[in-house]
Amino acid sequence: MLPHEDWIGTWNALGVKASKDLTLLHTRVLLCYMESHRFYHSVQHLEECAARLAELQDTVSNLAEVQLALWFHDAIYDPRRGDNEIQSADWAREEALKLGVTDASAARVHQLILFTRHNEVPRGYDAEVLIDVDLAILGASPERFDEYEVQVRQEYAWVPTAEFRQKRAEIPRGFLARPALFSTPRFRTQHEARGRENLRRSIDRLTH
Fold first, then answer.
1. Which of 71, 115, 189, 201 is exposed most, by the fewest CB atoms within 10 A?
2. Are 11 and 65 in contact (CB under 8 A)?
């Protein structure tokens, strides 16, 4: 479980002192990641992302903003909807402003979360770091990647198999069509080759 102290430290860096409201918000956010319909977008994913961010945190300009965006990036998640990231970003900005974070900082956190829709190129190095962290699962060990694929299927259990396989195969194809999976030099060096191999295996499984 992600330590409460990490949550408080993130907010402290944004100028917000520890309080009962902050602790209650921490509980609310974690409970979101524990919802019964989540198998991949869960506390496990949040913990894995935090570990990956720790590898890059010495390179980030506004670490607390990236950390806060990470905490909230999948806070709202319903696999039947297409606006999860927008809702998550709106919630993060609302809570940040309520707790006294500056307008500019709250706006940057909001934009960082919107980049996790993965429908546009992230702008700025901090955004590149957040997106690489979110996509690090692509370059995970083959065993963890295969587990991730099973978890995603569980989240979409309501979709018929043939339809799921057809639509799901479009995702790894889209990633493989990119010049690079990862934006940061460190992640390209460490995870690019394995990520591409994992994605090729995924396509093979989904189409045969």
1. 189
2. no
Q: Whose CA is closest to 196, among 151, 118, 142, 144?
A: 142
Angstrom CA distances, 152 to 50, 146, 148, 206, stand at 20, 10, 6, 13
Handedness of CA 22, 95, 122, 43 (dihedral sign): positive
Which own/partner contact pairs does 125-128 have at CB distance under 8 Å and 24+ positions apart? 125/59, 125/60, 125/61, 125/184, 126/60, 126/61, 126/62, 126/65, 126/66, 128/183, 128/184
Q: Which of 175, 82, 69 is nearest to 112 (CA)?
A: 69
pTM of the model: 0.96
Token couple for 193: 């080759």
